[in-house]
Design a protein that fits this description.
With 156 residues, the chain is of the alpha+beta class. Helix content is 30%, strand content 22%.
């Protein structure tokens, strides 16, 4: 079994789906990941009860184990957040899986392209696409500018 090769600290996931609406989901989890000890994967919680209620810890742990996909790591849950009207196990399971996948990408065990699929996850050094970073939008903008140059129209 593979172990996490380097520490990855401050990985977070904020799952927000239809917050405040009917059947919404909200969950927030922050975790630090370290190379595993001799016992393999260990998940410890340091988040305060008012930040990450105990009733959602099992869902967070399930999500982290799912997201690690067989990679061993020492995981320290450091913070969380709850919005009671929208707090559900599925949101916390999703947040746990997203922080674990984010840690694997940050540690180099998953390709950087996988980061684009991690909608709610964030970590130090993550490259976030912005509207000008879209290759299709850049090609379209170049076509518009070229058309304006040919027609003699002024550009901004």
């Amino acid at each position: 079994m593979t172990g996490l090769p380097v520490p990855v600290r401050g990985v977070s996931a904020r799952v927000v789906m239809n917050k405040g609406g009917c059947g919404g989901h909200y969950a927030y989890v922050v975790a630090d990941f370290e190379p595993p000890g001799p016992a393999g994967t260990e998940i410890l919680n340091l988040a305060r009860e008012d930040r990450l209620p105990a009733e959602f810890l099992a869902a967070v742990r399930d999500g982290i184990e799912l997201g690690l996909d067989g990679v061993d790591a020492a995981v320290l849950i450091t913070d969380g957040g709850v919005h009671w009207p929208d707090a559900r196990d599925i949101g916390y399971r999703t947040a746990g899986a997203q922080v674990a996948r984010g840690a694997l990408v940050a540690a180099g065990l998953r390709p950087q392209e996988e980061a684009d699929a991690l909608r709610w996850a964030s970590w130090q050094g993550r490259r976030r696409p912005w509207p000008g970073d879209n290759p299709r939008a850049a090609a379209l903008a170049e076509q518009v500018l070229e058309s304006r140059r040919r027609s003699g129209a002024r550009t901004f």
